[in-house]
């Protein structure tokens, strides 16, 4: 998995320009100047970057045009997630305040280091998060120059971080003054189940995986604490190690420049951190939670209906402006993983179920959430018309393609179309079957057995 950080295309976030050293045809030495970048290994808390994916081209395949697209986007950088702050970061910062003296060697800078996290604004969008949102908006405008300018309605939920992200995102669009950001606060036409399924599901909780994650953290944190002890005035407990590492992600995301803390941990320590969080997300919002596909299908189902309506009636229906062909919804970190799980976008290529042992890292897992849920992480769905591929005969055909953080990702069960896309009629069947199988959203979600 060396390739992860290796061929990083064009990050929206300004990383140092060592990519020059990574041009394959002019190798400098055997490792071709490979450098590890922790910001690419922080599931959930890193500034946005384009995922590498599998190398499928980002532009529509030759002979195809994108005729509609819908994206569901996580909000931009916040100061800190409440829970992560209470559990990992705050206890570390508290000890830091008690021990301002006694840092040395590589950690000397910690004597004067100030936390960038504003406690009274924890879950607010940061200024740099706002700038990044506009940047990703600009990227999508460049990707869909004909579709984006017709967008008049955009969805967010009631939280200010999604609404503010939406407002900043659309600043990149030429028709910004004509755009209405709608706050979805009622489940009209299933809109809340599609946008924030976990909040419409009483039986969903954030606890699955806590036990297992703690084991994975304990496995590496003790050695980190031991390694850093000569430079520190107090002993790092396991959760302090995690908090210290998290500050690399949050400080970089808040300030828009790389935090000095990022350089204080070894590559192996970052990979262990990443694994502990991939494991947690697998249990909470991924393949190890039986609720995940139930929570991913409402969005897929409603987008499949939307695209069918466009194909049949040449308007999107459902109260959308007639000419709108590009759809945007702003949500939270849980939702892209539900959708990815429902489709198998982050499944391993073998049929084996994803496995997350707690006594060693599973290096060959496909479930890598750093690539899906940085701030502004997104899943996009493109509808393409291609010259060939009609169901009957040789006329134009329609296809669906999925995008995760700009890189196309095939649906394992349906990838025979151009650029590994899925023929639209097969896609509708797939979603129909999935929706049928997972239609008991309320059956599994309305917690009868919960007091
Ligand atoms: C719900 O769907 C109906 C019919 O498709 C549509 O007329 C109505 O505007 C929709 N409501 C909202 C709030 O989108
Ligand atoms: C992806 O993995 C999950 C769980 O490991 C499995 O249930 C699902 O069928 C897989 N999906 C695909 C499309 O392979
Ligand atoms: C890692 O997970 C894959 C499935 O993604 C599984 O086939 C493999 O056995 C696991 N490896 C280890 C070492 O746990
Ligand atoms: C794609 O768009 C171009 C330019 O508008 C057009 O010439 C071409 O026929 C379109 N192709 C298909 C398959 O619709
Ligand atoms: C709630 O979800 C859990 C899995 O997270 C599942 O085992 C349980 O059966 C669900 N409860 C209901 C009422 O479906």
Automatic annotation (TrEMBL):
InterPro entries (alphabetical): His_Pase_clade-2, His_PPase_superfam, Histidine_acid_Pase_euk
A Pfam family: His_Phos_2
Molecular function in Gene Ontology: acid phosphatase activity
Disulfide bond sites: 64-386, 248-262, 414-422
CDD domains with a match to the protein in the record: HP_HAP_like
Keywords annotated in UniProt: Disulfide bond, Glycoprotein, Hydrolase, Signal
GO terms under cellular component: fungal-type cell wall
Signal sequence interval, chain numbering: 1-16
Protein name: Histidine acid phosphatase-like protein
Species of the source: Cucurbitaria berberidis CBS 394.84
